[in-house]
Amino acid sequence: MNLKVQYSIILLVFIAIAFLSVKAMAEELQCGRCGKTIQGQYVSYSLDGNKKLLVCQKCDKQLLHCKACGLPFHNKDLVKIKGEILCKPCYDNSIFCNICNRRINGKYYQSKDGSEKYCSHCYNRYPRCAVCDRPGNLHRLDGGKSVCDECLAKLPLCGSCGKPIVGTYYKFDSSDQLFCEKCKNHNPKCYSCGVPLGKQHFRFDDGRRVCINCNNRAVYDVEQIKQIMAEVEQLCVKHLGLKVNTPYQLQIKPMNSKSSIQANKAKKGENGDSPLFGKELGLYRRLNGKSEIFLLYGLPKEMLYDTAAHEYAHAWQSENCINNQSLEILEGFAQWVSSQILHIKNFPKTLEHLEARTDNPYGTGYHKVKSLEQRMGKVRMIEYIKKVK
């Protein structure tokens, strides 16, 4: 063998040795946490997709492990919450109880809208809100019901007792406020508008009690009441053609607080007491050739216009209509006149209340007269009213 061939063989041997060394280095195991070559034993963790995470024994012992997935992580990659250590991916994908803030492992419950979730322990331990059904630390209300902070802030307040209303509430045409069932059923009612009264209300000397709202709108000045009566008369003449020729005396009276017997005697002129009793707001009386209109003292302005128009209509009827008309015609026409004045003066709520009445003879009579007006027109209906029984 010549020298050239010998050198060639030696070169090939060195190349082979170098290749085997590189291959051995390529097959060395790297720690998935510190990145160093693993010397000796290591721990293998299964990842998604059949992948493996190899960790040297030193890193596996020194690093903290995620409570959820069990993998070791450096501190910067961990989140500590409620005594648990979680890696950031597990923290992002975990479900936490909205009450105790602990990670839910296994069965859980959720609110109706799905926005909150609860562990079994908290869901079964805490009472649930009577409005949204979510468990938690609640406010206990009258009647044994409990509500959460969020629902409590949204609950309507009773216009009488001022307490939050859960469940059934009541609304009256005369008020924008809402009232709880307890106040509606047990509290005394405002004489003027009928809403349940609260602790703060006004009491007349004649025993009537009215809410603050009605008291603030009431007309107490006698001269102003007389002016309203005069205005109603002018409106009835101008817009309806209803003129009362016989002079009448206007009397502004309190409620008769004695008895219905005394009030009835007053109606007949047997005593000097007020003839107004019960729920009467006004009265027209023709006695011994003398005409009188009585109006209850201290009515809210819209009720004063309503009552004044009603009694003025009766004064007109006493001069222009046949005797012994039915109560439905008498009261129905007076209610119709009131409705016209309320419309002219723009008192929509009082007008709606009048039109909603179905009682006999006031409600049924009003709808009968209104039906006549719709068929005949205003002028012909008024002429018809003069002679119909």
Between the first and last Cα atoms, what is the distance in angstroms?
Answer: 152 Å
Low-confidence stretches: 15-26
The radius of gyration over CA amounts to 45 Å
Given the structure, what is the number of helices? 14
List the strand order in the largest sheet.
Answer: 15-17-16
Shape: rod-shaped
Description:
This protein has 389 residues and is of the alpha+beta class. Helices cover 41% and strands 16% of the residues. The strands form eight sheets. Strands 15-17-16 form a three-stranded mixed beta sheet. Strands 1-2 form a two-stranded antiparallel sheet. A hairpin with a 2-residue loop joins strand 16 (282-287) and strand 17 (290-296). The termini are far apart. Residues 15-26 have low confidence and may be disordered.
